[in-house]
Amino acid sequence: MNVFTKRTNFICLFLGALLCVFAGALFISSTSYAKTKNAPTSKESFLKAWKAYQKNLPTTVTFEETGEPNTYIYETTLFPYKGKMKILNVVVDRNLSYYYDYDLNSDDVLKGTVEIEFPDLEEDFFQIHSHSSALWERQNFLFFIDNRWIGADQWREFEDENEISTAHAQCAPSKFWSKDNKILTAFIPLGVFVLVFIFVISRSNKMQKKQIEKYDLSMQRQEDAIKQQQQAFKLAEESLALQKEQTDYLRQLLKDKK
Rounded to a whole number, what is the largest CA-CA distance in the chain? Predict the structure, then answer.
C-alpha cells in the first residue's frame, strides 16, 4: 500500500465519521427540539390551540383579550353570561380524567384542558345551569391526535375518516410507492445518507486513481531517466576504450620510428 492509498483511505474514514457525526447531531437536535416549550405537546402550544379552538366554536359569541394577563371578555350561547374569563391553569396529561364521549377511548390519549374562573358570575350559577355548564366543560377538553390538538367532535370525524380510508385501502391493491407508505418515508433519510456516502467514497476513489496514475507516470519517467543515464555511461565507456586504443596505437608508431 503506497502513501497515496493510505492517505485516501484516511480521507474516506474521516468523511464517513464526519457524516455519522452530522447525522447524529441532526437526530439529537431534533430530539432536543421536541422537548422544548415550543413542542406540540407543551402547555404553551396547547393553550394557543385551545384559544383558537374556543374562538372558532359556533357557541362562542365573544372571545376578546383585555389589558389584564390571561383575562378575556367571554360570551357563549350555552349559558347566559357575558363578562370576564380568567385562565388560572393549564393541564396537559394522559391521566387527565375525561367523563364524556366514552366511545372515543381517551384513556391512553394525551389530553389537555384549561382551568377557568368567571369573576362576574354568582356562586350558584353553575348549579342553576348545570347541563349547559357540562356542555361547556366538554368543549374545554382537547386531544392530541394526528400531531395536533383537536376537540372531541373533530376526533370523532377523524376516526370516521380513518375507518373509510382503511376500508378503501383494504379493497384496493396495495401500492408500495403510495404517499402514505410509512416504510418508504422512514427509509428516505437513510437512503439519502447512503447515497451521499457512496458519492464521497466514489469521489475519493477517483482522486486516488488519479494520484496513482501520476505516481506511476513519475516512476516511469524516473526509470526512463535512469536508462538514459545508463546508456550515456555505456557510450562514455566505449569512447574511453576507443581513446585508449588510439593512444596505444600512437605509442606503438613512435616506438617503431625510433
Answer: 160
- How far apart CA 128 and CA 181 sit, in angstroms, is 53
Instruction: Map grid coordinates 496514475 to a residue.
Output: 213
219-241, pLDDT tens digit by residue? 888 888 888 888 888 888 888 88
Residue type for position 66: T
87 Cβ partners below 8 Å, 6+ apart? 47, 70, 71, 72, 114, 115, 116
For 46-95, write each residue's pLDDT tens digit. Answer: 999 999 999 999 999 999 999 899 999 999 999 999 999 999 999 999 98
Amino acid at 224: D
Using CA atoms, how far residue 219 sits from 8, 211, 231, in Å, is: 20, 12, 18
**pTM, full prediction:** 0.51
DSSP 8-state secondary structure symbol assigned to residue 226: H
From residue 114, give the alpha-carbon distance in Å to each of 70, 89, 137, 153: 11, 6, 9, 18
For residues 235, 241, 244 and 249, what is the CA-based torsion angle, rounded to 10 degrees?
-110
Give per-residue pLDDT as tens, 99-132. 787 777 778 889 999 999 999 888 889 889 999 9
Output the nine-digit C-alpha cell for 238: 566505449
- How long a stretch of residues is the chain? 258
C-alpha cell at 62: 365573544
Instruction: Check the CA dihedral 131-90-82-149 and report its sign.
Output: negative
